[in-house]
Amino acid sequence: MMRSLRYWRRILVANAAATIAVVGIEGGFGPGVSGRAVLVDVGITFVYAMSIGTLMGLGLPWVGGRCWNRGYPINWTAMLGAMVGLTVAGTLVANLLLTVLGILPGGRFGPQFLGSLEIALVISLVIGTAVTVYEVARSELERTALALRTKERDEAEAQRLAVEAQLASLEARVQPHFLFNTLNSIAALIPQDPAGAERMTEQLASLMRSALDGGSAPLVPLEQELRVVRDYLDIEHVRFDDRLRYRIEADPSDAATSVPRLSLQTLVENSVKYAVSPRHDGGSIVVRAAAADGRVTLAVEDDGPGFDAEAAHGGHGLALLRARLSMLYGGDASLEIDSRPGRTRIAITVPQHAHRAPQHLGASTQHPFV
Fold it and tell me: Which of 122, 146, 155, 243 is deepest in the core (most CB within 10 A)?
């Protein structure tokens, strides 16, 4: 992570996003709030964001440069620990600065510090994790791009497609609207359902880890892929409530079957985007996985209004997924789209092979085959 001008611009954007998220969570943009009150809240919150964000911008690259190559879980444990420590330090700096300026009363320094630290930790861990994932993705992409220029044209084109598909999957996990919606949901759950907030935070961390870890393993067990899909749908269900209805159908005997990593996840995200998000009454999603005659079929069906499959541009998730299938299986895999008003079904079919699970994958506490 080179701390260039562009890097600090991205940190500034993250600080501004954190400011807006915190003010929004605390009701600062609600009806009846005066414009002056909004400006004061935004100004105070921006001081916290800049204090914490600047320390993270300086400290996280230093920590990452010394521990990232040690692999999971050492790298993420060190990074999350650094985020917590830098958040505490940044919150302390912000409180001291606001107290010296007379904006905060000096007699309430302790309660003010503890109160602001609680929300600062939640915001910093979520956005800090997202920025870390994004910066690592950019670094990996830049190194890969440099290597591509030294190879033959055909080989370089194939590797470029692989990197673009991986980066698209990473960015899908850290889209700002998804992160901030999840963050709002976690913040709302903290006072009334701490266990639910903790569970949702773990699911978000699992999604982030699935996007970044295992990047060199294009195939994963079906069980792992379904676990990622369930985490994603559980998070989105908190956001959409009864507007999102879903079920997952799969045979437990197929748990070890190899499937392209984040392939089923891409199909589910497509259904959430077109069938659930834009509709007032939401939609229903059915996820199916079945193996037969040496082939594995992963299908996602929804009752949304449909979409024009031919209009999907080259950077669309489905177009990138099709390119990945071609790279992995040649002509021995397919992606079929049947979309019309009231019913959309997208299915991929790949050869069936058993997968040897990586050693770091532990047993799931929640079986994804339901």
Answer: 122
